[in-house]
Amino acid sequence: MATEEALSNGNETDWSDRYYHIDQILDKPGPRTDPSFLAGEEVKRFLRETCKILVIGAGGLGCEILANLALSGFKDIHVIDMDTIDISNLNRQFLFRPKDVGKSKAIVAAEFIMNRVPGVKVTPYFGRIQDKDEEYYMQFNLVICGLDSVEARRWINATLVHMVDPDEPESLKPLIDGGTEGFKGQARVILPTVTSCYECSLDMLNKQTAFPICTIANTPRLPEHCIEWASVLEWPRVFKDKKMDTDDPEHIGWLYKTASSRAKEFKIEGVTWSLTQGVVKNIIPAIASTNAIIAASCCNEAFKIATSSAAYLNNYFMLIGTDGVYSFTFEHQKRDDCPVCGGQAITVNVSKEWTLERLIEMLVEKQDVQIKKPSLATPKRQLYFQAPPQLEELTRPNLEKTLSELVDDGEYITVTASSLPFDLTLQVKYD
Amino acid sequence: MIKIWSMKKNEDAAAKRRPKTSAAQIRVQKDLTELELSSTMKTHFPDPTDLLNFTLTITPDEGMYKGGAFVFSVNINTNYPHEPPKVKCTQTIYHPNVDLEGNVCLNILREDWKPVLNLNSVLVGLQYLFLEPNADDPLNKDAAEELRKNREQFIQNVKTSMRGGNMRGVQYDKVIVQ
């Protein structure tokens, strides 16, 4: 193939027809392409030279996502992961080898992709997404998540929604979120503040399997009951306030031993080391092919959004592979009472000399908000709480204070009240 | 890149930048400030700037636990309301659904928790445990068995325990008010 030759020249990482197949899509518009699609060199230049994409998670989904993006022509990829490589990852996280066990997933994955796909720059960060500030996230055009935690998803979603600045179009970063659980998976496109966000759909999440605590305590029937007994009841009884570290083999060992003797007592079979670890860490067996399908879907969306070459997913794709193959795509609706992207935000122009009480009176009287008994807080402090009594008493003296003592110019106040769907954001501007 | 901004133009609601208060924090503010505390329930915040950790004191005004003050610690983590608050009884009490370590058997605190539930539901649930102790979901097996077999004796045991008595080698905390 021509590949070898071009590469050995050393002066150019691209070779002729490297992107032959992808260019079929990018060189000319189709009947359904968006009118803003700029076929030809311009879109290729954007994809291959300008577009900067962030991949969050370099695990099961992350490895697939990184490989797909690199092979689709994204060349400036960043990746964040706080985890190190475990031997159990190697069956599906194909960027890692036995020699990499214990090393950072982000760093090893980045090196692997760069070695394998010439001309692609992958910048790793070994750490938590929470370590990075808005300035960091602002540099990307797109964010793709392959995460295993609800908490991390809620955080990045809230951060991206919060970053949207009405005066700055570039501040709106499309978020593509992939997730898998065994044979099931989902891919979604979130356009912060425009479409429904991750928080809007929080009530759709499956509950973690939890057993009634009395079953665990009295009538265990399953090995899981014995393990939960060890971790939920025995650990705090024996070790008091000592925190359980589910990554510490000694802790897992103690739980395993304790659960095993409990199982023996009740003649229950099946308590193993790996089940113990699975139950306390809430591990759901990962299926490599589910990850491949979901990652592929996420990367297709990233490609379409980055190039405008085809209509993108609106906005939720789910895959259920447990009973044959079933998939369904629908538009998940934005929730008015979403604590992250819903609710009203209004700016009020007031005098510095106003008391907090006067501001509250204004809110109650304001026709377009109609709030009854509002409670107010800034991100830094409580201003006035209607309940419970202790906090009402503590914040009552604030009512007499002037606003300038409590709130800075331009600061935001979170207002909650039972008459509001969720909350109201108030930005205070002084005259 | 797609032109998302053109869609954005039509969206007036939520168009303004919002403060970076976490969803959990706002939800806790909402839950707390809308609590309907009856005269039998009282919250205490050891650190009033920390809304995520507080105690709840229940003083039942009827039922067999009347006259006692039962103190629970409530701990909310940043994954609220995806995860339920953690509730523990801080005293050693004699109750079929509370063990001697303070663990509470209340379905909505574990297997039946849903994000649509709120702190009020939890408080009402706890209060109900003192009005109707439930022998079918025992955490303290002895207490549950007593309640099922001999209600009069159970009530006697509750009284003894609430006075800070010792039964079957267990020293209970005195929870009687006054």
Automatic annotation (TrEMBL), chain A:
GO terms for biological process: protein neddylation. Pfam families: E2_bind (PF08825), ThiF (PF00899). Signal peptide: none annotated. It catalyses: ATP + [NEDD8 protein] + [E1 NEDD8-activating enzyme]-L-cysteine = AMP + diphosphate + [E1 NEDD8-activating enzyme]-S-[NEDD8 protein]-yl-L-cysteine. It is an enzyme of class 6 (ligase). Its EC number is 6.2.1.64. Keywords: ATP-binding, Ligase, Nucleotide-binding, Ubl conjugation pathway. GO terms for molecular function: ATP binding; NEDD8 activating enzyme activity. GO terms for cellular component: cytoplasm; nucleus. It comes from the Eukaryota. Pathway: Protein modification; protein neddylation. CDD domains: Uba3_RUB. Residues 348-431 form the E2 binding domain. The active site is at C214. InterPro entries: E2-binding (IPR014929), ThiF/MoeB/HesA (IPR045886), ThiF_NAD_FAD-bd (IPR000594), Ub_act_enz_dom_a_sf (IPR023318), Uba3_N (IPR030468), Ubiquitin-activating_enz (IPR035985), UBQ-activ_enz_E1_Cys_AS (IPR033127). Belongs to the ubiquitin-activating E1 family. UBA3 subfamily. Catalytic subunit of the dimeric E1 enzyme, which activates NEDD8. This is NEDD8-activating enzyme E1 catalytic subunit.
Automatic annotation (TrEMBL), chain B:
PROSITE patterns: UBC_1, UBC_2. SMART domains: UBCc. The active site is at C105. It catalyses: [E1 NEDD8-activating enzyme]-S-[NEDD8 protein]-yl-L-cysteine + [E2 NEDD8-conjugating enzyme]-L-cysteine = [E1 NEDD8-activating enzyme]-L-cysteine + [E2 NEDD8-conjugating enzyme]-S-[NEDD8-protein]-yl-L-cysteine. Pathway: Protein modification; protein neddylation. GO terms for molecular function: ATP binding; NEDD8 conjugating enzyme activity. Keywords: ATP-binding, Nucleotide-binding, Transferase, Ubl conjugation pathway. Residues 23-167 form the UBC core domain. It holds the Pfam family UQ_con. The keyword Transcription regulation does not apply. The keyword DNA-binding does not apply. SUPFAM superfamilies: UBC-like. Its EC number is 2.3.2.34. Belongs to the ubiquitin-conjugating enzyme family. This is NEDD8-conjugating enzyme UBC12. It comes from Daedalea quercina L-15889. The lineage of its organism: Eukaryota, Fungi, Dikarya, Basidiomycota, Agaricomycotina.
